[in-house]
Amino acid sequence: MKKFIVKGLMNLLGKLPLKFHYFNAKWIAWLLQHVFRYRRTEVIMNFTKCFPEHNYEVIKYYEKLFYVHLAELIVETIWFGACRNPKRLRDARIMEVVNPEVINHLYEVAPSVVVMLSHNGNWEMIGGINNYNYTDIPINTREDNVCVVYRKLTSKLWDEIMRDNRIAPLLDKENFPGYIESKNFPRYVYTHKDEKKFYNIITDQRPYFAAPNYIECNFMHQKVRTMSAAASLAAKFGMAVAYLNINRTRQGHYDLEYTAICEDASKMPVEEIMQKYYDLLDKDLHRNPVNYLWTHRRFQQ
Hints:
The protein contains 10 helices and 9 strands. By secondary structure, the protein is an alpha/beta fold. The protein has a 7-stranded mixed β-sheet. A two-stranded antiparallel sheet has the order 6-7. A hairpin with a 2-residue loop joins strand 8 and strand 9.
């Protein structure tokens, strides 16, 4: 019953225009920052640690802009869940792949491609990737070869709701096999090792508390522990690895830019793959500091 009510409300709100949602994002940002004070301590600490070159006034300015970004992520995600056909999503042109030739090349030369992305831009809309190419170069992503690896939410209710939301624009939602829970990812890769796939994996989380192995990388002026399953599996099966930056260029628009990390991960140490990934992410965050989920406690050991 709760799922029906929540999904019904989200679907109703999602049908409203993006302009309506962005108007509401202004007061949602104010509520998050000043009324609920949602993880304000973590946000300020993260900004202070990651941008030591900036003074307090700049950090407070970043904090304000971040909560606007967070509010817009929320309303965009709700709107996305109502995109039950590709046309609405394409007409909005909210996301745009700027260099499909990079990912096409990796797909051609490797058994499969691991695409490592982070909590920058709006990662919740990656399920619509097949609709984001507006160039004259056809892209090789299709519903039958794109996979998205996710971490299961604690709440069963919200886990089911977010699944439905993330695959909203797919033509065949009932039979889509590419929504893979992280613990099932190694088995899925092994089972489909003879099929060319795009594996999209958010790779900037801290290791799970029970994870026996992790890699330590330099990121944003400090050492961070990170999960390495994506790079390890890519190395085991000789896959190509790419980094995806989802960069917010203006309200209502993100550029999706791929950067090749390697064509054959078996020829590069896993530690080097992960460090290159974090170097690329570090560079992008210094270009656009608020385009990230700074509420996570990823920098506290």
